Amino acid sequence: MKISRMSFDVLKLPAQNKALHCYLLMSVWILLLIVGVYYKFLEPSRRLPEPASTTELFQSLTLDVKTKRIFKICNFPDEMGEGDEGSLRSNKWLLKGVMILIRHGDRGPLQHVKKISSINCGTEESDILNSYKTYLHNLTVFGKLSWVGPGPFHGFPILPAHTRHCNLGQLTMKGVSQLLKLGSLLKRNYKYVWPKLEKLNDTEILVYSTRYRRTFQSALAFLYGFIPKDSLSKLGIYESQSMSFCFKDCGCPVTDKLAKFVRDSISYQLKAHPAVALLTQQTGKALFSSGAEQGSLAGDPHAVRDALLTYVCHGSGLPCENSNNCVRRQNVAGVFAYTDWVNHQKWRNTFWKRMCLLKSYGLMRHLVQQMLHVVSDNGPYFTLYSGHDHTVEQLTTALGISNDPLLLRYAARVAFEVYQDNREPMSGAKAIYFRVLANGKDVTRQVAFCKNIATIGKVNLCKIEDIVRFLHDDYFTGVNATNYKDACAYKYD
Ligand SMILES: *[C@@H]1O[C@H](CO)[C@@H](O)[C@H](O)[C@H]1NC(C)=O
Ligand SMILES: *[C@@H]1O[C@H](CO)[C@@H](O)[C@H](O)[C@H]1NC(C)=O
Ligand SMILES: *[C@@H]1O[C@H](CO)[C@@H](O)[C@H](O)[C@H]1NC(C)=O
């Protein structure tokens, strides 16, 4: 069975050994943190004095080792660097096409938070940002910045409404900068190994976005950096009605049940950690601005984490509920450590794994179809999916890629590269391979169903046969079914 095979792989493979090692370290660290939190609450008289001013706190956050890594989630544009995409430079291997899933860039909080008008969600000016703005102004009529291309997004705003202001759930200008940077970094990587990229016309490119401004605007900014400008202005952008990009395989009732099992196990874990629950509640009370949100969301560590990012990623001081309850460094560190740990536990949860397999089935099928189109030499050669953290999380889990908090950061990416093996001439369709990269790191070896891996230097390639076989024969064995319909009708009691 898939699930047990994978847990053995964790012990076998060197890449995953590292992940396990990291996990163990993290567990110890979380334990220490939790002990620290208990200590803080149980012995208030021994608490260290806190800095009085909240704005000082941002400086200390950037200096603190525990909180420093949290900034990686923000993915600041000037810290984004080149990944290993397109790193296979050999005339024996031909890059034929690429599929990329992105998470949208930096956005405002999903809930009303305190002091939001004083937070600066803007970005530094850069050459690419300026040329992008000029391009968009040129593209549109009478300065009305809405999409003029064909398709369901016609008339959608193409840039965030404000340059500095953080709007609820909306992409920020910092988010635009991230995607521009990402697109141009990837273009630089692919330029030499994939000359076709600079000639791709609009019919050779396929783009899907969910119907949110933040994903649509992220897709545009990414494409501006990545594809020829002429093609961008003619491009049709398609809508995915689901966050999972399920295409023809949506409607799977059992996933609701599985999601409930996962939620139950998460709230059970929180009950088992009362100190964390208390810390979360206090933090949430200081963060959320309306009474309703303070009541319903303040106790949810994931909602609190998301709201914290609004402050942490925009260099803002942390808010206070009153003079006795301010959000402190240890609140941030505690909430992040705990939610990372919960995500890691979730990743080992069988129900979660099954849910991800079922939710990602449509996208997985679509990806394989795109791979086959690329191979058949009639395109499209580049497919972009502009989605959410859920999309990335579910697809990588379904593939068996180990959980990494950075997979869920703003402007995260998962790339699939399709290669033809030219080592022996006329080797045909059997000689097609693909490679998976998560945030620029080759994770092909982690993919659960890849049995035929070719290794060239640091590059790993998986036979396309493996993913085709997985999809056709083995996909539902872990859920006790042979097809999607039966798997979705499975009764758990
Ligand atoms: C904008 O349009 C003008 C006039 O059509 C052109 O000269 C200029 O190069 C365009 N700029 C961009 C960035 O496309
Ligand atoms: C796009 O490029 C392909 C290959 O170069 C060509 O066959 C096709 O006609 C082009 N399509 C358009 C609309 O220009
Ligand atoms: C699959 O079915 C077998 C036999 O019907 C049963 O013993 C097993 O527990 C089922 N597995 C799951 C994951 O439901």
Automatic annotation (TrEMBL):
GO terms for cellular component: Golgi apparatus. Keywords: Hydrolase, Membrane, Transmembrane, Transmembrane helix. Pfam families: His_Phos_2 (PF00328). InterPro entries: Acid_Pase_AS (IPR033379), His_Pase_clade-2 (IPR000560), His_PPase_superfam (IPR029033), Histidine_acid_phosphatase (IPR050645). The chain crosses the membrane at residues 20-39. Belongs to the histidine acid phosphatase family. This is 2-phosphoxylose phosphatase 1. It comes from Brassicogethes aeneus.
